[in-house]
Amino acid sequence: MRVRSGSALALAVWLALAGCAATPGGEEGALADIEPGARPDIESDEAGLWHVMERIEANLKTSGRIVDDPALNAYVREVLCRITPDLCDDIRIYIVRTPNFNASMAPNGFMQVWTGLILRSRNEAQFAYVLGHETGHYKRRHSVQIWRNIRSTTDGLMFVQLLTAAAGVGYVGDLAQLAALGSIYGFSRDNERESDRIGFDMLIRAGYDLYEAPKVWESLLEEKEAAKDPNQLIFFSTHPASEERMETLTALADEMTIDRARGDSGRERFVAETARFRAEFFLDELRVRDFDRAQVVLDHLFEDGANPGELHFLQGELYRLRGDEEDEELALAAYAEALAAGGGPPEAHRSRAMLLRRRGDDAGARAAFEAYLEANPAADDRRMIESYIEQLQ
Amino acid sequence: MKPFPLAVLLALFAGACAQYELVEPGRREIGAVYSVDPGIQWSRMSGSRGEYWTVDGPRLEILHFIDGLKDGDILFNYGQIPAEQKDKLPVFRATMTEIEVEDFVVDTLIASGNGRVEATGLRPAAFGSLPGFRFELAFTSDSGVDRQGFAVGTLREDKLYLILYGGTRIHYFDQYDDVVEGIIASIETI
Fold it and tell me: Which of A64, A358, A387 sits opposite B115 (nearest CB)?
């Protein structure tokens, strides 16, 4: 049975409802923590869930969307092991190239980290909070709890069939499907609070600043406000967010930081390890063509301010690709700022040249194309650019 | 697969596979702008924006003739994106340069679920007697299959004419690579 991609989202919603209904108090059905190195008894229902997850993981592992950069993978693993040294050996990490904020942990121990999360994390503490929160769900076996509650209902068999069939699909092309299948979602508010608290325990032991956690939600909520289609923000479909959540996290940070030094944000280290991906991950965002939402993300990057030459170039690209009435002028101004600041990519010259050529400024366009080739002698499109220069003589 | 058995198979399955038709070597028109010589036998299927040819099946190799894309058109949707989500696909703009056309093809491949998409070597290239362009492509499908290809095209009178050839990096791209180069060399504008 082939599961239509739309049904995976329906599945996620159904799970959310089932999850909330099934564990009203949070205590009922609570399970023991997962033990390092443990595997469920082969005859248990949990083993059945692991088996399904293993098939999903096998599909994910070979997907063209997995980022296999060794240094980035090593860094993400380093952060994970810093916050959960006892469990990290059991966890396989997959970095998925997709312009969306998400991380998830499957009950059998595979973790997805989407590149949209790496782009939006302002520092290592924020990144670690999200990883720690997801590890909290894994540690407390919340997914198994939901799996058991669902299976005990009359709809349980249908759910099992849907999930198993979805796992049999040859690829995980649909984002909602990827998110829904990567874990069993629909965590109750108590599950969420428990994961936040566990996540905070991990952050404290690793020396991070807990006050970075509510900022994650603040930024996401801002982005959701601006989004053309808020349903595209996958993380919200599985993690309800609200002002209340931010207040709760701040209060939790107050409670757990009392009598302690406020921890470290780990900003420098995070920027050093991830800066080289920032432009390409942001350009992924522009492909989604929700420019108001992308602008919120870019505004946050501007607040951090690293490599302004690159940031102004990305701003120029946003205007150029949006292509509204005033945007040509705005884009040219942004490229000019990028070039003045320096340190940005040579493509600022090329994008500027294309716009100047379009508005008939042949001399300006030619000069900009020449500047591009000078700044980028190994330009892959050199022959095309040289033909433009010739045409503009 | 040798041409003769393919023709037999196609004749046998003509009833069941009515949407494919046989293309024989010998000049034939593509849309209203140019003609080519197929070189070998192909199976042809028409699409909403042109036609595509294959020998072993489109998942193994595909030669896609995109015929006169105009402002606002998508490049292709190989069925992976449901109709209600078509706005996820990028659209062609009549003001595009060749650089932007390259981005447009890359963006479409990404939106279609492919990863590690790389376009390289953008350069001027003849499209028959018309000035055109060419670039190479490499990407990995969502199911993990490495694919290779190239695009040859021309921008003419606010429209994009493009020939996309792609196949699995192992075996199928190479299998018909020379034949497709021959087809491109045979382009004659009408």
Answer: A64
